[in-house]
Specification:
Number of helices: 3
Largest sheet: 4 strands, mixed
Helix content: 25-40%
Radius of gyration: 12 Å
Number of domains: 1
CATH architecture: 3-Layer(aba) Sandwich
Strand content: 15-25%
CATH topology: Glutaredoxin
Structural class: alpha+beta
Distance between the termini: 15 Å
Shape: globular
Strand order of the largest sheet: 2-1-3-4
Bound molecules: FE2/S2 (inorganic) cluster
Length: about 80
């Protein structure tokens, strides 16, 4: 099975809007999923600039799916969904 790739946006907007808390994912994901899921930090994913006023930062991408207003829980839920749990 292909690894699931999680990209946590570390761009300024996302970071300021709560992305800083998402750094926990770097610890939680390997512990919970081992090598089934890869987590990486990313520069601005380009999502915050679309309709800035309605920005739903912080953003995380799980493969091609975007998690907006991301929290640790929301990201883990998306991963579980992808893994078919
Ligand atoms: S800073 Fe996160 S999408 Fe731009």
């Amino acid at each position: 099975m292909e690894k699931i790739k999680v990209q946590v946006c570390l761009g300024t907007t996302c970071f300021v809007m709560g992305g800083a808390n998402l750094q926990e994912l770097n610890d939680i994901i390997p512990r919970k999923y081992g090598d089934k899921v890869e987590v990486v930090g990313s520069n601005c994913l380009g999502l915050c600039s679309i309709q800035w006023e309605y920005s739903k930062a912080p953003y995380v991408k799980v493969d091609d799916e975007v998690v907006h207003e991301a929290t640790v829980e929301k990201v883990l839920e998306m991963i579980d969904k992808k893994l078919g749990k």
